[in-house]
Amino acid sequence: MKKAKLILDKDYVISDIDKRIYGSFIEHLGRAVYTGIYQPGHPTADKLGFRKDVVDLVRKLNVPIVRYPGGNFVSGFNWEDSIGPVADRPKRLDLAWKTTETNEVGLHEFCDWARQADSEVMYAINLGTRGTDAARNVVEYANHKGGSYWSDLRIKNGAKDPFGIKLWCLGNEMDGPWQMGSKTAYEYGRIANEASKMMKWVDDSIETVACGSSGTGMPTFGEWEYTMLTECYDNVDYVSLHRYYGNPHNETEDFLASTMDLDDFIKTVASICDAVKGKKHAKKQVHLSLDEWNVWYHSNEQDQQLYKTEPWGNALPLLEDIYNFEDALLVGLMLITMLKNADRVKIGCLAQLVNVIAPIMTSKNGGAWAQTIFYPVMQASNLGRGKSLLPQITCEKFDTKHYSDVPVVDAAAVFTDDEGVTIFAVNRDLKEGVALDCDLRSFGDLKVVSHSVLHHDDVKAINTEANPNEVVPVEAQLPREGEAIVLPAASWNVIRLAK
Ligand code: AHR
């Protein structure tokens, strides 16, 4: 068995963890909304048409914020289409996903759903085909108490109290040529600055997220962040990062090393924010919003077929990745990477939440179930709150096709005064277990009180509606006094230590 050592010290804290890193995302795309969270007539639907089986699973994930309504969708969306009597709402072509949007679920309905899910809405405005006027109006509609045109219209439409949306995305992936109304960095920086400024004039309690480049592979990456932040630094609070990984060539070791890239991505964007801060002699710190992250590749071919055979349909099964066990390991590693960068990453949105590249799946005529990736997200969200500790890890390293010096074990640790220490650890070795020796120094006499392990002998194992418990965490036997903790080969581990 391999050996590793983890040193943690109470005085070595990376940062308080912002609970919003455990956010998620619902886009008007595929079956996320229609037959996902919303399906009037379904046996579990409430009087508003929301599926209770789905909301129950969302609550288990303990999702503090949900980004909405897009994504690529938002860049052609008129928010006004989504308010007022449902029968009067227009059906629109959504050019992003080649579907027809009925607007049956809109702003009021989604805010009702988020309340049921114990979540807050992170609302994205359209800076593709719309501009500053629509941006300030939707803030007035959602957040102003009353006595103005848009706030009185909200009241007339049934919501006496403001929705109080605190977090706003200034468009989506605006450097992508696939985006409706895509822009140059300068064009985007200018409009983001003006939109954010006016939105904050309407409600000075809100925070805004400027679009970073849509990916590190974009020719615009880096320069985009620098140029657009130069224009809007003073008026925005966060920069967005989007990152998806895949294993299309079945190179699992390389796939599990991809979080080396995520760590680099986060640190690069943080440096660019700081470069602009320095250039502007600013005191203010802009932080990061990793507001799309996940594994995404399984559904690509099927989606290409669907676009050909059913263009302009509604609630098509788009982006329905079926996640296997190795995907759950990577999702766990991505969560660890976010925790280790908790000083800069303040917001994270697992993309997405239901049916579309999602931890939760539904069938139209059946139930809802948890995919493999559900479990690391649930455990990190419920137990990964408090302070993120600096983990000092000593272990073997290996090289893969794209990465060098990949540590066999990656881990993050969190601490709260009442709960003690929780360690999240992945053993990347596919064949051999690792004996983890934990040195908790200043914490005194802590004992391992639980050790949950997510492992499957087959890295391609999946959960299905008929067999939803193929890949689920199980409790491991606790180590005796003085014994190391064993991280089985290919495993996600949650180890809790307390007095
Ligand atoms: O999450 C799916 C899509 O991925 C989003 O709509 C877009 O922002 C990104 O490219």
Protein described:
There is one protein chain. The protein is an alpha/beta fold and 499 residues long. 26% of the residues lie in helices and 24% in strands. The strands form six sheets. The protein has an eight-stranded parallel beta barrel with strand order 3-4-7-8-9-10-11-12, surrounded by six helices. A seven-stranded antiparallel beta sheet has the order 2-15-19-20-25-22-23, with helices on one face. A hairpin with a 4-residue loop joins strand 5 and strand 6. Helix 3 packs across helix 4, helix 3 packs parallel to helix 5 and helix 6 packs parallel to helix 8. The radius of gyration is 23 Å and the shape is globular. The two termini are 29 Å apart. The model has no long low-confidence stretch (mean pLDDT 97).
Topology (SSEs and partners):
Blueprint (H helix, E strand, L loop, with lengths): L1 E6 L5 E4 L6 E3 L26 H10 L3 E4 L23 E3 L4 E3 L5 H10 L3 E6 L6 H12 L5 H8 L10 E4 L14 H18 L4 E4 L12 H10 L5 E8 L6 H5 L2 H21 L7 E9 L4 H10 L15 H16 L4 E6 L9 E3 L5 E3 L3 H10 L3 E3 L2 E3 L2 E2 L7 E2 L1 E8 L3 E8 L6 E6 L7 E8 L19 E2 L9 E3 L3 E8 L1
Parallel strand pairs: 1-21, 3-4, 3-12, 4-7, 7-8, 8-9, 9-10, 10-11, 11-12
Antiparallel strand pairs: 1-16, 2-15, 5-6, 13-14, 15-19, 17-18, 19-20, 20-25, 21-24, 22-23, 22-25
Helix pairs in contact: 3-4, 3-5, 5-6, 6-8, 10-11
Bound molecules: alpha-L-arabinofuranose.
Alpha-L-arabinofuranose binds next to loops.
